[in-house]
Specification:
Layout lengths: L1 E5 L3 H12 L4 E5 L2 H10 L4 E5 L7 H10 L6 E5 L4 H9 L4 E4 L4 H18 E4 L2 E4 L4 E4 L2 E3 L3 H12 L7 H9 L9 H14 L11 E4 L3 E4 L4
Parallel strand pairs: 1-2, 1-3, 3-4, 4-5
Antiparallel strand pairs: 6-7, 7-8, 8-9, 10-11
Length: 225
């Protein structure tokens, strides 16, 4: 699991990084809110551990910023015991959980795993692509995609098994619900529309669509590296 830790206190950051690392997690550490926001916006993480009291940009501002971008990565807030108002505000702004300092790394690890299990049921992710299956919402590189119901269903079908190649016949059967018609090009047209929507507003590497055409075979969504 890839974890983004946004924490300015070196002792606490080292404790969390070492403890989570010993449990098989890969921890990326950001020392302030500005760096944390940038990394949360550009990276694909399984969870974000976010301190509220940060220099420069505080944790609630970071949380608000990433949620406004459509980034739904689970967030655990780290708070002081007397920050009840901040905890309530953070949960209202989209935080998934919180821990009051001091805490045991074992508890933090357990909460991360619990959020990951819950997130896997409702979220699909492949690189910069995230699909919220409950709210039928898709984001690419943090940018919300305005997809039709059919476009979302097609992208969801491919992303459920990212890296696997699906023929046009398979896509037509599972997304449209009818047998393959060799004369129809509805699959190709739908994928073209999705690619165009991904390209609109995308920047840098995100201009490259996650949907690959496999000549003579079909389509696939690129799996996360």
């Amino acid at each position: 699991m890839r974890i983004l830790l946004v924490e300015d206190e070196p002792r606490i950051a080292d404790l969390i990084s070492d403890g989570l690392g010993a449990r098989g997690m890969s921890v990326t550490h950001a020392i302030n809110g500005h760096i944390g926001f940038e990394r949360a916006s550009n990276g694909a993480f399984d969870a974000i551990v976010l301190d509220i009291m940060l220099p420069g940009r505080d944790g609630l501002s970071v949380l608000q910023g990433i949620r406004s971008q459509g980034i739904s990565t689970p967030v655990i807030l780290l708070t002081a015991r007397n920050e009840l108002g901040d905890r309530i505000q953070g949960l209202d702004m989209g935080a998934d959980d919180y821990l009051a300092k001091p805490f045991y790394v074992e508890e933090l690890s357990a909460r991360i795993h619990a959020l990951a299990r819950r997130d896997r049921q409702s979220m699909l992710e492949a690189g910069a692509l995230r699909l919220d299956r409950v709210n039928r919402k898709a984001t690419w590189g943090g940018q919300t995609l305005d997809l039709t119901t059919r476009e979302f269903s097609l992208l969801e079908y491919l992303t459920r098994s990212a890296g696997e190649i699906f023929t046009r016949a398979q896509i037509l059967e599972h997304v449209w619900g009818y047998d393959f018609d060799p004369a129809t090009n509805v699959v190709d047209v739908c994928i073209k529309r999705i690619r165009e929507k991904i390209a609109d507003g995308a920047q840098g590497d995100n201009k490259v669509s996650p949907i690959e055409t496999i000549r003579g075979s079909g389509y696939r969504v690129k799996a996360s590296p």
